[in-house]
Amino acid sequence: MEQIIFTKFDKRLALFLLEESKAINSNKIKITHEQIAKYLGTAREVVSRMLKYFEQEKIISLSRGSINIKDIDKLKTYI
User: Fold this and answer.
1) Residues 57, 22: contact at Cβ < 8 Å?
2) CA separation, residue 78 to residues 42, 64, 74 (Å)
3) What is the CATH number of domain 2-76?
4) Residue 11: what pLDDT?
5) 20-48: buried (b, 16+ CB within 10 Å) or exposed (e) per residue?
6) Structural domain boundaries in the chain
7) How many CA atoms does the CB half-sphere of 53 hold within 13 Å?
8) Whole-angstrom Cα distance, residue 42 to residue 36?
9) What's the pLDDT at 4?
10) pLDDT, tens only, 2-54
């Protein structure tokens, strides 16, 4: 609960993506925006907006049902 209250969403999302990537030992995470939203306790639109920002910054690439981390070092700067 403290994480939800005190952490900016970009940091929470970056941390989530890094942890998922590490757990599956791959930079390609098969997950939907809706699943991320439920896990992080926010709206899908918020997740989509932040993922789109990360994509514009060339940190990730998005495809249907998956997220590919392209620049893990840059993603780590958000945590």
Assistant:
1) no
2) 18, 24, 7
3) 1.10.10.10
4) 94
5) bbeeeeebebeeebeebbeebebeeeebe
6) 2-76
7) 14
8) 8
9) 52
10) 455 446 899 999 999 999 999 999 999 999 999 999 999 999 999 999 999 99
